[in-house]
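Sat 14:20. Reprocessing the chain from the morning session after the first attempt stalled halfway. Input below, unchanged.
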Amino acid sequence: MKTTLSIISLLALATSITCAQDAPKGPKKPGKDHPAPEEIFKKLDADSSGSVSLAEFKAGKRAQENPEKAEEMFKKIDKDGNGELSLEELKSHRPPHKPGEGGPGKPGGPRKPKGAGAPPAQ
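Finished this time. Tokens:
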């Protein structure tokens, strides 16, 4: 019995070590999966003109993956249709949540107000 318990314990320890090695390195900050709009804008605005042209947008890392979709996205973000993105336009653009992602009290969703869901005090 002791031998069986020892073997199970060793297997559990080996599994834990293996899983820990597969985990991503570095600290993970909740809610910080995406860079701030200001950071994105600064990287895209290659000529530091204060606006992002379609060419600058398409030269971005994510746009390189799918240039056609990037052009479509650029047009959606460019609310005034002047062919340039302002920081304000970039900030106002938020991709829609997919069904089942986020929501009040769930990762990626808005926080519940304090006391929400708690029974009323009597």
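The CA atoms of residues 102 and 108 lie 4 Å apart.
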